[in-house]
């Protein structure tokens, strides 16, 4: 299958999940994350899930980060430039849905990508080599390319990996991908 076909197939798989399944699987993913050697950093980037796309609920991961007293960073999509801007998530951070249904900070303290230690990456599909397929706009590949070379990229997925996915030179591979039952290291 090509990337477009894989996106369609994985969107359908996600849409078939009940809300209760998403919550249970998201909690299992958070519990798996605790086993990773990623907890010595300071700045942790996390995506806020698009509910209509039935993405992994990252609230459980955020609770872990707060419990470990980590600085949580969230992004705002700049569709005109294809870039993400990153903001420190604080108690007074106002989150609003964009016109695309993405929960985003209105503004705040901007954090450069180079400062981030761990990035939790949304995806539709991943493979056994750490390649991933997102929604196809390239936001995360451009973002990950700006990060410190020591930063760790951690995908989260409800589903096990494909054997192999089509990839391009601009695709940035993951270091880990967490699924409900297993964590994959690349």
Structure characterization notes:
- The chain is of the alpha/beta class.
- The protein has one domain (3-185): Rossmann fold, CATH 3.40.50.
- The chain has helices at 3-15, 19-33, 59-67, 139-146, and strands spanning 43-45, 71-78, 83-88, 95-97, 103-105, 118-121, 125-126, 132-133, 152-156, 176-178, 183-185.
- The chain has a seven-stranded mixed sheet, with helices on both faces. A two-stranded antiparallel sheet has the order 4-5. The protein has a two-stranded antiparallel sheet with strand order 7-8.
- The chain is globular, with a radius of gyration of 15 Å.
Considering DSSP H and I runs of 4 or more, what fraction of the residues is helical? Answer: 10-25%
From the spread of the alpha carbons, the general shape counts as globular
CATH architectural type = 3-Layer(aba) Sandwich
Mean pLDDT: 96
**Which structural class do you get from the secondary structure elements?**
alpha/beta
Q: Roughly how many Å is the radius of gyration?
A: 15 Å
CATH topology call: Rossmann fold
Q: What is the string of helix and strand elements? A: HHEHEEEEEEEHEEE
What's the number of helices?
Answer: 4
Identify the CATH class: Alpha Beta
Strand order of the largest sheet: 3-2-1-6-9-10-11
- Main beta sheet: 7 strands, mixed
Which residues sit in consecutive blocks of at least 5 with pLDDT less than 50?
Answer: none
How many structurally independent domains? 1
Could you tell me the strand content as a percent range? 15-25%
- What is the CA–CA distance across the termini? 22 Å
CATH superfamily: NagB/RpiA/CoA transferase-like
* Overall strand count: 11
Catalytic activity: (6S)-5-formyl-5,6,7,8-tetrahydrofolate + ATP = (6R)-5,10-methenyltetrahydrofolate + ADP + phosphate
Organism: Marixanthomonas spongiae
GO molecular function, one term: ATP binding
EC number: 6.3.3.2
């Amino acid at each position: 299958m090509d990337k477009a076909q894989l996106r369609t197939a994985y969107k359908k798989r996600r849409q078939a999940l009940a809300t209760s399944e998403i919550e249970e699987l998201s909690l299992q993913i958070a519990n798996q994350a605790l086993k990773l050697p990623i907890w010595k950093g300071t700045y942790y980037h996390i995506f806020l899930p698009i509910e209509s796309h039935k993405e992994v609920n990252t609230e459980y991961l955020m609770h872990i980060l707060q419990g470990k007293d980590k600085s949580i960073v969230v992004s705002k999509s700049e569709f005109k430039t294809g870039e993400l801007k990153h903001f420190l998530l604080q108690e007074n951070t106002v989150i609003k849905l964009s016109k695309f249904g993405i929960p985003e900070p209105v503004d705040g303290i901007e954090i450069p990508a180079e400062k981030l230690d761990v990035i939790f990456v949304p995806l539709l599909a991943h493979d056994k080599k750490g390649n991933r397929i997102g929604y196809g706009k390239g936001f995360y590949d451009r973002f990950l390319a700006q990060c410190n070379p020591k930063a760790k990229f951690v995908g989260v997925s409800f589903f096990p990996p494909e054997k192999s996915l089509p990839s391009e030179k601009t695709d940035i591979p993951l270091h880990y991908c967490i699924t409900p039952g297993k964590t994959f290291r690349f």
